[in-house]
Design brief:
The protein is an all-alpha fold. The chain has seven helices and no strands. The longest helix is centred in the first third of the chain and has 21 residues, at about 10-30.
Length: about 160
């Protein structure tokens, strides 16, 4: 079975090998009790640290778009158990991979990665068709006939429409 150089399985293999080597070194130096105890605590601390950081390791191995936020939650709130489990679930959750490379969206909070959308800003449509202009002129005439606008207002509003023809 081949694994990627930074896969979680490869990391566990390296960790198991280093633990085995450290235990062998501890047995070889059994005559000095102080160093054996210190080395044992060092190994236990290393194992505990790796277990504590499993969500962060998984997020970075998977190149999760929110890996830094997962790492912060894991380090800051991992000791609660809920923070550790939440960050592990988030690190293992499916990440939306977009074709543009801005991997965000369905992976949860995206404080650091967004899906940008290019928007082309065009000027407002000043070109009106003949039907639109005639409908506007009829509407203005109806307003003048109903007394909603005066004849002067009608002339002022009619001139730009006639010029646009």
């Amino acid at each position: 079975m081949t694994t990627a150089p930074y896969s979680p399985l490869r990391l566990i293999e390296v960790l198991a090998l280093s633990i085995a080597l450290a235990l062998a070194a501890t047995q070889a130096r059994a005559d000095d009790d102080g160093s054996a105890v210190a080395l044992t605590f060092l190994i236990i601390g290393l194992i505990a640290t790796v277990i504590y950081l499993i969500p962060t390791i998984v997020a970075f191995c998977r190149s999760h778009p929110n890996r830094w936020l997962i790492a912060v939650i894991n380090v800051a709130l991992g000791g609660t158990g809920i923070g550790w489990m939440g960050s592990l679930v988030w690190a293992c959750s499916a990440a939306h991979l977009s074709s543009t490379g801005s991997n965000g969206g369905e992976s949860g909070l995206n404080l650091f990665v967004n899906d940008p959308q290019r928007v082309k800003i065009e000027p407002a449509g000043l070109q009106m068709s003949f039907d639109d202009i005639s409908a506007q002129l009829l509407r203005l005439k109806r307003l003048r006939d109903d007394g909603a606008i005066t004849s002067e207002e009608y002339e002022c509003l009619k001139q730009p429409l006639i010029r646009s023809l």
